[in-house]
Amino acid sequence: MTHLNVLERGADPTAATLSTAALQQAIDCALPGDTVVIPTGRFLTGSLFLKSDITLWLAEGAVLLGSQQLADYKPVWTRVAGIEMTWPAGIINISGCQRVTVAGPGIIDGQGSGWWQRFWGEDEQGGMLADYSARGLRWVVDYDCQRPRNLVVYQSEHITLRDFTSRESGFWNIHLCYSSNVRLTRIEVSNSAGPSTDGIDIDSCQQVTVEYCSVSCNDDNICVKAGRGLLAQQQAKTAREIVIRHCELHKGSGITLGSETSGGIENVIIEHNRFSGTGVGFRIKSARNRGGWIKNIVVRHLTMVNVRFPFLMQFNWFPQYSYATHNNPADMPPHWQAIMQGVEGEAGLTDVRDIFLHHITATLTEEVFSRAFFIEGCEENPVSNMVFERISLQASEFGKIAGVQDLQFNDVKVTSPAVTRDENDTYER
Asked: DSSP letter string over 71-132?
């Protein structure tokens, strides 16, 4: 039960030099039950790899600063936005491990601005995004523009993450993938901007609890995913038995299921969460080539203040990103080919059923646009058995509901003085 201080391995607490080797040496020397301590200071690092049965402690005043050099992140086989491919490792990586804890009041800072500029330029109108879009390749730029995540849990079990702050990630902040029995408690995620800077992504995992977390980011605050396309459908690695409760959601796109649904999402409880100034409250998104299912979802006891879309469900989401086209598929890199292999025909329509939403309020304290309901199901495979009960919504306009069957409203009160306008049928994320 030894505490290993990384300063004893030569780590530089001024961030003047790269400390990756010293930090990794401390981790490698730890025995089962040991704690690796990151003390007060600023430590510049590339990718670090934890191992089973240890704790990484981020002390008060400790900051792990992610290097802005891609070469400092080891290429690893992983899953990115639903596709298996080689991608840079995260700053902290828990891969193939058991019984690992990352804890303490310290900070993981991805120094994301350089990575964001790589994607969309200094003015958010250029970079790789503009180049790829001009060539009809919007669907692949997110995968080709490699950007590190702050923390990745991959193929691991019995993992505890608590009390630290994740901020300014280059890509997703915290990514859980192919893992089970994971608990996140009292984590703060704070991303000022940046493309695809999701807060917490739960990707084909089981028995996950997220509680008492505070998340502000520039994309989905907390998201449940299950893979994209034919391979993910064949693997059938379902996201299930997930609880998200007592969290505070601020800037971002809310608590989301999808858009990667191919392996199936089921048995999710979202309860006792508060939203303030969030773009969306509860969200489902998918596309016509995802397949899979979303079922047995309970959403209850939510409080929303100044939320633009309390309920947003789209099943033909972001076509430029969701549908891949290319003239010469044989000439493409393997991950391009994987993206193109969607779930075809009727099997590509996500089966969504048994969604129970109750005891939810949405109020406005500022003059912001809001739409009470925006639900766009598929006519060929409508959302089935969705129940809204004891709901009170204050919004600018009522909105639209389509592509549903067996929809029930019980004790639903809506105040929406404005006319629903077609020009509001968009959401930017």
From this structure: GGS-EEEEEETTEEEEEE--SEEEES-EEEEEESS-EEE--THHHHHHHH-TTSS-HHHHHH
